[in-house]
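Lab notebook, bench 4. Continuing the backlog of folding jobs that were queued last week. Each job is logged with the same field layout so the records can be merged later without manual cleanup. Today's entry covers Sugar transferase involved in LPS biosynthesis (Colanic, teichoic acid), a 263-residue chain. Filled in by technician R.K.

JOB TYPE: sequence-to-structure
TARGET: Sugar transferase involved in LPS biosynthesis (Colanic, teichoic acid)
LENGTH: 263
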Amino acid sequence: MHLERKIGFYEKYVKRLLDIMFALVFMVVFCWLYVLIALLVRVKLGSPVLFCQPRPGIIGESGETLFDMYKFRSMTDERDENGNLLPDEQRLTKIGEVLRSTSLDELPQLFCVLKGTMSLVGPRPQLVRDMLFMTDEQRMRHTARPGITGLAQVRGRNAVTWEEKLEWDLRYIESVSFWNDAKILFETVAVVFRRNGITDGEAATSLNLGTALWKAGKITLTQYYSGLVSSEKLIAEYETEKAQHSRGRKKAAGGCAGECVEE
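JOB STATUS: finished
OUTPUT FIELD FOLLOWS
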């Protein structure tokens, strides 16, 4: 699938520079906050402190690319008698609920901003399986770098429907500008402090797109499971490629070390 859209001067040349500058300043000024949250998570949930998960990134020549998105952990790893993870709402901790409702669990994503896999403002990176249930029009959202916050988040967070959320994302990519990004950032702060868009009992979990479509009768159970299988395959391929790349780097580093010893 090949998707394209016209990208303006700001998005092409300025936005990335501002992302880096803001991320660096924020991380330096609030380094104490990172340490505090990390310690709380370590004490309450143990190790690891960070949660890492593949998410769809900006679209490339062969389709959407995947990248590792980071969050502070908010759930336990509790399992049932069969070894399966318990439902999210049963594993969510009190500290995790606070981190999610205040969006503090998203702070590690500033590292993703520095790496270039995310932006401060853009369509929120959804789950890989969500991507597979989107229409071609909805997947146009992936022509922009995914963001820590976006237009959909200041218009309702998890209180809006999937259709509304994806529509807000499409509206954003139609008019990417400095002023729109600045407005979204300021509105994000207000939304978080007022806890807008968080419904009772849903401060942390919500239906994924496939489940929502199936429950609404818009896809069959066969289509639903097919999407899940396809998403697992994409993730497995990504993890395999990442592991091979990591081994290649270690091998190259080992070779260099050997040459240095000989010299």
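OBSERVATION: The chain has two domains: 9-207, 220-263.
SIGNED: R.K.
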